[in-house]
Amino acid sequence: MLYLNLEKHVIISDLEKAFLQVGLKPCDRNTTCFLWLKDPYGPVTKDNLLTLRFTRVAFGIISSAYLLAAVITHHLKKYGTPLSWEILKSIYIDNVLFAADTTEEAIAKFHESIQLFKTAKMNLRDHISNSPELNQYFSQHQRIPNGPHKILGIPWDIVTDSLIMKSLKMPENIAKWTKRNVLKTIAQAFDPLGFLSPVHLKGKIFFQSLWKKSYSWDQPLDDVDKEIWLNILTETCGATVCIPRHLLKNSQNAQNAKFELHVFVDASKYAYAVACYLKIIANDSTTTMLIFSKSRLTPSKGLSIPKLRTPWIIYWLSNTAKFIIKEMNYNFDQVYFWTDFALRYLLD
Question: Which segments of the protein form a coiled coil according to its record (predicted)?
Answer without folding.
Answer: none
